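Minutes, project check-in
Item: structure for the 461-residue chain
Input as provided by the requester:
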Amino acid sequence: MRFPPSATGLFYYLNRFSIQTSASFPDLGIVDTELHYRGVRHLWPAGEQPPALFTRVHNGWRTLLYEGCLLDGVSLVGPLQITAMLKSERFDEAAEAWQIWLNVFRDCSFYSSMVTIFTGTNPPGGIAWERPDDFELFGALGIGSGGFLQVYQAGFTEILRMVINGYEDDQRLIIGGISTLAEQLARQEIRGTTPGRHVRFSKVNRISKDNGKISLATDVKPVEAFDRVIITSNNRAMQMVYGLSADETFLNQDVCRAVRETHLTGSSKLFMLTRDKFWLKNTLPLTILSDGLVRGVYCLDYEPNNPGGPGVVLLSYTWEDDAHKLLAITDKKQRCQHFVDELSVIHPEFARHLVPAGGDYERYVLHHDWLTDPCSAGAFKLNYPGEDVYSQRLFFQFKTANHPEQDSGLYLAGCGCSFTGGWVEGAVQTAVNSACAVIRSTGGTLLPGNPLDSIHSIYDY
């Protein structure tokens, strides 16, 4: 849903197929925004500084990003300075700076790290934050893309990695949806055929090894056997559906543990297709954040050249505990009404427009709870403190293709096996890695600079 241009692998393919992205995702302050906090309405006009209440936490966070901090005599380079190093290809400098952050915070949560940094003797911005008020404020404001209160327990380095990679900047929409990329890839002509002609839509229920072949038990009989398999599902499906971590048939014990123990977020979204883009006609905010049940509301425009066309409202965008609460409301119309009722209290003018096109809740309201999805059991990887080592094991699992004695013929891909869970870039990177593994393990030739020969684990997690 959010596609930052710093995702260079993704945008290589988007550009290759001339898939256009639209204006930025309606993040806080990028568009006219309203924050409803402790019963008070705060306006945040597009392009301006956040409301005065948030000045201290906003300035402190921005100072940390640009200037870094000094902790117990250890100087930590500003994360955005590391970004600049990467852009100018000063990779050794960037690696050294990032390793220092890892050394200090690899075992710390986002919350505990923020407390350490901003209540110490040298807080970025020059003003120490007050507990608990400023940390609650920052949890509501987040790091640019919405409130992060519910992921305070995530690993600090996991959050910082998103910032350094530029994934929080200039997030964009793809007009036709990300599925257009898969469709274009499937239509490529390769030796008289296309990948799309070989796609099968059979659910895989189990993966096993039989007579040197990899067997896939699907909902269509008989069992199919393959020489090589790339798995792109999330980690919990690898464990619970395919049984990959039950023994060492395909993965060694370290990787099995990473599959089993990597944390996946709970997440819930509810979208509504509206008859028109009512926010344009009535000069309403495009983004509303609150500290109530409705955490984040975003007005999405997939037809920017058609102001009279239908609108899409992301009415609920929640993670972790905020998403878990919603599991008690299984009927989507009922859940939708809960959100509208709460918005009616904080913004009645906005709420009165929240009726699906034609009043058809069944067709024009879409909701999904990843935690109860039997093929997912979780939304995306978000490491807890100390789990970066799991990402390292999962990301580099494809390297077994270089060692015939270790190579099982099965390779892990998908954003959950990358360092950037929840972002398409992680899926693209690991897909390329695994494709190279298939080529090498079957006797093919790779160009110089390929991932198997040129990408190495250089950090101490």
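Outcome recorded: The mean pLDDT is 94.
No further action items on this chain.
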